[in-house]
Backbone:
């Protein structure tokens, strides 16, 4: 690994540790794992992995499912079950997971 | 896993329980999980993943996981037993001891579970995810008829045997549904579709007679009825309020309160309750059938230190007895166990969700989904109003999502 990458990884480590230490975020994210894979790493082609996606992207998609601007088979129904704050926690958690 | 390893672990556990206090502090706390299905395996994996300092032991009487979800497709000839069978080996990388054995006694005072042939394990927290056992004696003649009359409501040998019966039969198939609650509410209706799909291809003169003890289809009713009308007209006959009260395995008949019908294959799904080990552990609380729990921790309301998951629980409002639900409950339980065993308060506001896909043909699928949040005012977990729902219509795209669901949730519990 390039020394700068190592430095970047070390710099990011405290943040990752904080996310990992938040049981609320971890547990909320785990409710997605049944269909999207453990820690957001889907094992199928059909369902998108969530691990490592940008936080804004995940939160934006959840909100688009919720308000109907992104059509879906089931996600529009699931997304309505989570509050704005819960969506932000989940999005933040998955954005920090390795792909 | 070999028996001597089980005994070795059991022996080590007994020693640990006898260790003097100063040494005991160095011993890892142990979570013992009985039942390695959607609830138990998921709970074991998530405890071990979230806190490697906890020793997790997972015990089941079967050596490989056979999935009930998707097993109706084996009956329909659209999947094989190989497709729905998974190894437990993937759990070893988390440091979980996966043992083969049958729990026969729980001593909650000594925090000890006994297994067959004299082995035993101690625990700090016990998780029971034992699924259901069947109340055959509530249907006259069923116990005597079990050689010929199958339920196939636990995937495994009966799934294989029922498929063989369907392949061999000349004419009529009768499937009966018990009064709710039972494991997998949409399961019987999906099964009717799968068998009808098989008949349509292979035995177009054969019929499915669906006798339902309930007043109407208990899950996804309009979607199932539309599939029956559009895909299986003249093949599936649905009779509500038709509770099977007696079975005759010689005459091959079932009797309801109204009449007696004959079938070449009789598939009678019996009434159910939490499995025997839950009864022995003293965690059955309601109607002699189900186990009430604190939904923040899944801890039994009857016995401290024992947590109950899955179909065995007294379901909260709007909560189906499904594999997905058990998986979701297992994660709430795992999070609570990690907090409790580290001397912290568990999350006061757990969230669960559920998605059940049903295959109405080889390719087309319908779903029901829900999200459940804890309500401190009501001291229970309730479905979020406005969330959840069913498919707009059956579709092949959901067929792909349904099969994807199975592979991801199997990996989530075992991989």
Residues:
């Amino acid at each position: 690994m390039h020394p700068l990458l190592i430095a970047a990884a070390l710099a990011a480590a405290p943040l990752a540790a904080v996310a990992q230490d938040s049981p609320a975020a971890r547990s909320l994210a785990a409710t997605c794992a049944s269909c999207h894979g453990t820690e957001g790493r889907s094992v199928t082609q059909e369902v998108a992995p969530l691990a490592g996606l940008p936080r804004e992207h995940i939160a934006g998609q959840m909100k688009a499912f919720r308000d109907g601007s992104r059509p879906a088979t089931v996600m529009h129904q699931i997304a309505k079950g989570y509050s704005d704050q819960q969506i932000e926690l989940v999005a933040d958690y998955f954005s920090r997971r390795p792909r | 896993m070999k028996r001597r390893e089980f005994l070795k672990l059991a022996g080590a556990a007994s020693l640990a329980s006898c260790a003097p206090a100063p040494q005991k502090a160095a011993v890892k706390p142990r979570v013992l999980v009985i039942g390695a299905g959607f609830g138990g395996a998921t709970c074991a994996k998530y405890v071990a993943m979230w806190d490697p300092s906890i020793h997790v032991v997972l015990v089941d009487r079967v050596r490989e996981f056979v999935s009930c979800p998707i097993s109706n497709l084996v009956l329909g000839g659209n999947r094989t037993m190989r497709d729905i069978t998974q190894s437990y080996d993937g759990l070893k990388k988390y440091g979980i001891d996966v043992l083969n054995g049958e729990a026969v006694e729980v001593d909650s005072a000594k925090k000890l579970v006994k297994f067959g042939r004299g082995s035993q394990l101690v625990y700090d927290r016990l998780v029971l995810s034992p699924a259901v056992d069947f109340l055959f004696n509530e249907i006259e003649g069923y116990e005597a008829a079990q050689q010929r009359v199958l339920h196939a409501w636990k995937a495994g040998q009966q799934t294989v045997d029922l498929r063989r019966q369907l392949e061999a039969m000349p004419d009529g198939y009768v499937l009966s549904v018990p009064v709710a609650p039972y494991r997998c509410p949409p399961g019987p209706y999906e099964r009717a579709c799968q068998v009808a799909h098989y008949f349509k291809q292979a035995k177009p003169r054969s019929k499915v007679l669906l006798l339902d003890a309930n007043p109407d289809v208990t899950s996804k009713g309009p979607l199932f009825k539309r599939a029956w009308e559009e895909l299986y007209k003249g093949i599936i006959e649905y009779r509500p309020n038709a509770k099977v009260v007696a079975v005759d395995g010689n005459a091959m008949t079932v009797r309801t309160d109204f009449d007696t019908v004959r079938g070449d294959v009789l598939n009678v799904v019996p009434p159910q309750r939490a499995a025997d080990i839950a009864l022995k552990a003293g965690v059955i609380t309601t109607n002699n059938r189900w186990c009430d729990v604190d939904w923040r921790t899944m801890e039994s309301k009857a016995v401290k230190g024992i947590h109950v998951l899955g179909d065995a629980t007294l379901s909260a409002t709007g909560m189906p007895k499904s594999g997905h639900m058990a998986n979701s409950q297992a994660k709430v339980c795992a999070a609570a166990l990690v907090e409790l065993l580290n001397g912290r308060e568990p999350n006061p506001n757990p969230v669960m969700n559920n998605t059940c896909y049903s295959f109405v043909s080889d390719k087309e699928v319908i779903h029901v989904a829900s999200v459940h949040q804890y309500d401190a005012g009501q001291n229970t977990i309730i479905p979020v109003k406005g969330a959840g729902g069913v498919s707009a219509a059956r579709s092949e795209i959901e067929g792909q999502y349904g099969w994807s669901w199975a592979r991801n949730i199997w990996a989530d519990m075992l991989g």
